[in-house]
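Ligand-bound model needed. PBG.
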Amino acid sequence: MNIRPRRNRKSQAIRDIVQEIWLTSKDLLYPLFLVEGSQQRIPIKSMPGIYRLSLDNILLEIEESLKLGIVAFAIFPAISEHKKDKYASESYREGNMYVEAIRTIKEEFPQIVLMTDVAMDPYSSDGHDGLVQNGQILNDETLPILAKMALVQAQAGADILGPSDMMDGRVGYIRQELDKAGYTQTSIMSYTAKYASSFYGPFREALDSAPKIGDKKTYQMNPANKREALLEAQLDTQEGADMLMIKPALAYLDIIHIIKENSNLPLAAYNVSGEYAMIKFAAQAGCFNEQNAVMEMLLSIKRAGADIILTYFAKQAALYLKTM
Ligand code: PBG
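Prediction:
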């Protein structure tokens, strides 16, 4: 045998010098759940180790994460039921809890990348990402609501807006409204291929945002489809997205790969709540070493082509990378 691949695996040092990709804390974007009040730290049953935090605790969490080398964060608000309505009007009310939190976070930590969520569901009494009428999710009527929400978030200082709703044409619509208002430097990371997935279950518990009626299959993508993701990527790119995102990550590594091969935009992947829960509960049941499983999973997402990984494991992974 003159070719023996095992020679390149004979020691840790050899394995290190031939390693094709490395995960760093700069690859990670840490999603956080915001609740009203102060000194709140409410556990989420289906996501052990993750909490709904009030703003004071979010600031502490960001400070600790920065020390570990994480520079990017996304905030998702849990809105009390009585503030929800059909039009998600709380979402674009100036001075609402979410935009005030964004403003405070950027004042405290101007150096970070702060991403926001543009979608109706946390504020919608229907629990959908679009306006519901007679059981239909209206597309074009939803766009102005998203744009108004985007605008208050941009005004509060968000660096990147993340439309997670999957309405057609929303990236272009939001881009145009931002530019008209002078926010030409506010970026858009589009949820480009967001699949109608079971793996969002724990997130919906975290935000109490599950659809009241029906499911999200008329706007989120069919898990069976790959070429359709290329179409979505093409549209978002034409409409002016700065970055694309695939979601979920783990069951969609082929989608991450094909978009990476076909796009010149930075690519993110969202390692979603259900993927977090799978690892946590399996590790608790003694199936494997949690830390090793986390690193293997995150590495696989990067290897598939993600430049940025949104993950609830961000802090845990960054801590591990620092001590490695
Ligand atoms: C909805 C939204 C969802 C997630 C992010 N934004 C859930 C959904 O579409 O119902 C899921 C994130 C996760 O599961 O971690 N706008």
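The mean pLDDT is 97.
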